[in-house]
Amino acid sequence: MIKINVAEIRRHLTGNKLLQFDAKPEELDIAETELPIAGTVRIDGEISNVGDVLLLQARVSARVNRMCSRCLKEFTADSAAEVVEKYYPSGSPGVENDAYVYEADIVDITEPLRESLLLAEPLRVLCKEDCLGICPVCGADRNVHPCSCDTGTIDPRLAALKQFIKY
Ligand SMILES: [Zn+2]
Ligand SMILES: [Zn+2]
């Protein structure tokens, strides 16, 4: 959990507090199975007092371990996300249920940092845009060992059909 004491900035109408630190993945409640982070997570931003709410603006970045979904190669890549969230004083009227609130001058910024970094992961990870993947016939990584397998006749039912058409 990452909690920021905002007592000081709440005393000033335009007060802000810089956030510049590294956090361990577990401090952001990010498990290895959710997102394998290599090293620590960098947070750069600020919390500012903008009147009736506190505004969190930050950039979250980390090196993450990824695996290509085509060739299964493991590699590390830079991931980053921008976070902008409002925090309302708890008990203030008209605040929606899912809004972030804070109590007793303590703002817990764990959740938005965690979520934005998880959402920054691409749904389909590729080591490179034009990754050739693994040959379904011989199993070679076609980026490294181009093979000349005929992947057009991999489906035996399809092969039988082709045979049929020929005669
Ligand atoms: Zn690949
Ligand atoms: Zn092959």
Structure description:
This protein is an alpha+beta fold. Helix content is 15%, strand content 36%. It has 3 helices and 7 strands. The strands form 2 sheets. Strands 2-3-4-5-6 form a 5-stranded mixed beta sheet. The chain has a two-stranded antiparallel ribbon with strand order 1-7. The longest helix is centred in the C-terminal third of the chain and has 11 residues, at 156-166. The radius of gyration is 25 Å and the shape is elongated. The relative contact order is 0.16. Bound molecules: zinc ion (ZN) (2 copies). One zinc ion (ZN) is lined by residues 135, 137-138, 140, 147, 149. This is DUF177 domain-containing protein. InterPro entries: YceD. It comes from Succiniclasticum ruminis DSM 9236.
**DSSP helix fraction:** 10-25%
| Shape field | elongated
Q: Name the bound molecules.
A: zinc ion
Please indicate the count of domains. 2
Largest sheet: 5 strands, mixed
- DSSP strand (E) fraction? 35-45%
Which structural class fits the helix and strand makeup?
A: alpha+beta
What is the CA-based Rg, rounded? Answer: 25 Å
The DSSP helix count reads: 3
Order of helices and strands: EHEEEEEEHH
Sheet with the most strands: spatial strand order:
2-3-4-5-6
CA-to-CA gap between the ends?
70 Å
List keywords for this structure.
167 residues; five-stranded mixed beta sheet; 7 strands; binds zinc ion; 36% strand; alpha+beta; 3 helices; elongated
Give the gist of this structure.
The protein contains three helices and seven strands, in the order βαββββββαα.
